[in-house]
Design a protein that fits this description.
Mean pLDDT: 84
Number of helices: 7
Low-confidence stretches: none
Strand order of the largest sheet: 2-1-3-4
Shape: elongated
CATH class of the largest domain: Alpha Beta
Helix content: 25-40%
Number of domains: 2
Strand content: 15-25%
CATH topology of the largest domain: Rossmann fold
Distance between the termini: 115 Å
CATH architecture of the largest domain: 3-Layer(aba) Sandwich
Largest sheet: 4 strands, parallel
Structural class: alpha/beta
Radius of gyration: 29 Å
Length: 243
């Protein structure tokens, strides 16, 4: 019995390869045209995944984020087993999350190397101990339009735990340290001023009860660039001028 050999369609791999190549080039050209229509004129080297472009992309991603410092320099000077710094950092994390803002926790070395410069805001929770390099970098950040939030006595100690004083606080914030509130008082009333950017929507005279276990301070405004938004004053119980 004879069997006929069936010959199927012959596949021309060269034509398939060339067709695919044409489609790929067409897709790339369409993509580049779309990018140009959105972002305007550009050079090819500006959109290639080079190290420089990736670093630029990373800095742009940081521009809308907050940086929260977890200062090992400060932690090293605390008593063994103390959770004071961690509690401060965790509180700021909750606050920033509540404000629906993305954030990164950064280290002392990140600030020393200038890796904080592209963040929208830098938060220093209880960062009592900072190095000289950190102080220089933070001042540079402020000069370039950055914003800093602090709690506690910022940079009052060196990275080696030696007392430095309140010079950084005075220079950066235009305020003079007066005294700490006595820990014997369980709380202190803090009265806010309204109609300011940071107190928008809060009525003037709104009061907060601030626990004194963290040793808050009295400070005096020295410079016109500094706007006082609150006072250690209970207008319901205390007479006389605002302090």
């Amino acid at each position: 019995m004879a069997v006929k050999e069936f010959k199927g369609l012959r596949v021309n791999y060269l034509i398939i390869f060339l067709s695919g190549l044409v489609l790929l080039i067409t897709g790339i050209l369409v993509f580049l045209l779309i990018v140009r229509n959105i972002y305007g004129s550009y050079e090819i080297k500006e959109i290639l995944p080079t190290k420089k472009n990736l670093q630029l992309l990373s800095s742009e991603e940081k521009s809308g984020r907050a940086a929260i410092l977890y200062s090992k320099y400060t932690e090293n000077m605390l008593p063994s087993g103390s959770t004071w710094l961690k509690d401060n950092v965790d509180t700021w994390k909750k606050f920033v999350k509540g404000a629906r803002m993305e954030f990164d926790v950064i280290s002392d070395q990140d600030i020393e190397l200038g890796q904080h410069l592209n963040y929208k805001v830098v938060i220093l929770p209880g960062s009592k101990s900072l190095s000289d390099r950190q102080m220089v970098q933070l001042k540079k950040y402020l000069e370039n339009g950055g914003s800093i939030f602090v709690s506690g006595g910022p940079a009052t100690f060196s990275d080696e735990g030696k007392w430095r004083g309140w010079e950084f606080f005075t220079e950066v914030f235009g305020m003079k340290f007066n005294r700490e509130i006595k820990p014997e008082e369980s709380y202190k009333v803090h009265t806010l001023r309204g109609n300011l950017p940071i107190t928008a929507g809060i009525p003037t005279g709104y009061t907060l009860k601030i626990a004194t276990w963290d040793r808050p301070i009295y400070a005096e405004v020295l410079e016109p660039r500094t706007t006082q938004v609150s006072f250690w004053y209970d207008f319901r119980r205390e007479a006389g001028l605002v302090r």
